[in-house]
Every structure is written in C-alpha cells, then in structure tokens.
Amino acid sequence: KIEAMYLHLNVVVLAHPGPPGRAMQETLRNAIDEAGATPVRPDEAIGPGARRSNAVMRHIQEADLIIADTSQHSPNVLLELGAAMAHNKPMLLLVNSQEHIGLPSDLAGFDYLLYDPANLSEVSTYVKRYIQRLTARRTA
Question: Model confidence over 58-81: pLDDT tens digits?
Fold first, then answer.
C-alpha cells in the first residue's frame, strides 16, 4: 500500500541550474525516482510560450515536497522557497559544507542536510529516507 502512495508524491527540486548544480540535480532526480516518487524540475517542465515564473509557481503549489539546494543563495531558489513557505509545503534544504555560506537565517527552522559535495551518495540515502518518512506520516 505504501509503494502505491509513492507514485502520487510529487517532489519539486530547486537548485542552481549551472554546472555546480548538475551533479546534485542528477543525484536528487535518481534518489526521488528510487524512492518511488515523481521528481519535478520546474525549469525543465516549462512548455513553449509559458512564462517561467508561472510554471515554477504552479509546480510549487502542486508539490508534496520541496527539496532545495540553498548553498549558493541563488535569488531564484530563495524566492521559490518563499512561495513554498506561503503554500505551507514540507521542505528539505540542502547546504554545501564546503561553501561556508550557511543557511539564511529565515530558513534556519526547516529540515536541512549539510552535505559534502564529494559524497553525494549521502544525499541520496538521506533523501530516500526522508521521502519514506513523509509518505509513512501521510498514510498513518
């Protein structure tokens, strides 16, 4: 029964789109998929003629979980996290331990994982377990 629930869990991934974020994006996509959930990268799901901001906000509104890499304090990611907060979405934040920027103070009360970019398998394991716990709470 729990496995069937995974299929209905949409997880939106917010991360820097450039080269520093590509390995993380792939790691997250695989971990979410392995957990049986549906990974959604809003910037990859924008149709022709659609406004990026509208598409991203729609995906956030429909999401069951938001996972965001806040390491680079990207203005887009932070804005999108604000929208997720406004919709009371569960959020898991990721912070690169090598960048020494830390978590913005307004996000300090949310679940976060301090990760080593040289060991993304730790991120994968954590994300899979996090999704399983979220799903278990929803079925209880």
Answer: 889 989 999 998 888 888 888 889
Helix/strand/coil for 96 = strand
Q: Are 104 and 70 in contact (CB under 8 A)?
A: yes
Kindly tell me the burial class for residue 58, based on how many C-beta atoms sit within 10 Å of its own C-beta (0-12, 13-18, 19 or more): middle
Nearest CA to 40 out of 22, 17, 56, 19 is that of 56
Token couple for 112: 């976060």
Which ranges constitute the DSSP H helices of the chain?
A: 2-6, 19-34, 52-62, 75-86, 120-139
CA distance 38 to 12: 8
What global pTM score does this model have?
0.84
Query: β-strand 65-69 against 91-96: which pairing, if any?
Result: parallel
Q: How many residues does the chain have?
A: 140
